[in-house]
Amino acid sequence: RIKMKQPISISPRELAAVKKKKEYQWTFACLQRLEPVFAIRFPEEEAVYLTLHILGGKVRYPLQKELTNDLEHVVLSKVVRHLINRVSELKMLDFHNDQDLINGLNIHLNTVLQRLSYDLSVSNPMLNDIKKMYPYLFHLVIDVLEDINQTFDLYIPEEEAAYLTLHFQAAIERLRHSSETHKKAIIVCHMGIGMSQLLRTKIERKCHQIAVMACIAKADLADYTKKHEDIDLVISTIALERVTIPHIVVSPLLEPGDEKKLSAFIRQLDESHRQKQKTFQMLNNTTPFLVFLQQEAEHRYKLIEQLSTALYEKGYVEKEYAVHAVMREKMAATNIGAGIAIPHANAKYIKQSAIAIATLKEPLDWGNEKVSLVFMLAVKHEDQNMTKQLFSELSYLSEQPAFVQKLTKETNVMTFLSDLDY
Known about the structure:
Structural class: alpha/beta
CATH superfamily of the largest domain: Mannitol-specific EII, Chain A
Shape: globular
Radius of gyration: 28 Å
Largest sheet: 5 strands, mixed
CATH class of the largest domain: Alpha Beta
């Protein structure tokens, strides 16, 4: 730019504000050392512009009081408050008291607003992984950002939505940890109280998801389980007969092999619980009239319009749903991996929850991958439990490429729906 005599133009107010910061001094000193190397003189504007990059990339930037005087940070607290209020509302979880989340969002959004005000773009190498791992939360954050962008006249892109998703996911993990979602266990040991207490200590230290309620003798097991029906599993050092509760035998010293066995056992319990509670939400919310197999759409927006129209004609959504679904897709592609996409629009345009489904004869370019199975989600936020389960089903599907391939080859709607009930 300097050699081509095309200087950066920065307003005098911005120049004055940035020059007060210590980062400007560092940048200026650095550029002075580079001047003789490149036989060039860096103008003040370039030093300020480079300082802005450094400020915008400094995620741990402490929020000092000086920031509140800067014009671009007047909106910061409003944006953070709006984000926490809406995500709390939609997730039906209260994030207002999580100081770590509030601090993290303040620091992160501070740098986001810095970048936006100077038109600096950001890349997120984890974007697609975050979309796949936390599709429900990511798309919920995108919906909230859509409101924020309109309200505050901002453009916070999907790369930032992915970073914000991680902040909220960490907050959810903290809530989960504090709300004691532990598996309740009892230890049955024939080696005496000392040995059972040692085993208890080891289990609680190594397996954080297990809460040991009691250590009992084999003879007392039947009575104890009658009185305490909420026990999830029995960990025993001896073989047990006629026990209906899930149980596992380990050595009294809990050797490394036992630890692995116990972890695998817990995972299996979670998986069987997931299977048990399945009243497959995908099927509960669609009908054969909303399933379109072997479509030949030329563009993803066209397919989104087609599926939105079907939902509108059947009375599930408002007419504006289609336009907003396409706008939403332009903001962030809704592919979640394994050739699946989940386009949707803001819940305020939905009259009744429903899902329209399409498969494609030839895979369609969708974001950064090819997609051949599309679930158009029109799901009201009030149906919170249904939505959670629906996204866990979608997440499961996205890990089964062979199964997805089988679904996309199907030509009969009824067979397709019965296949879907895996």
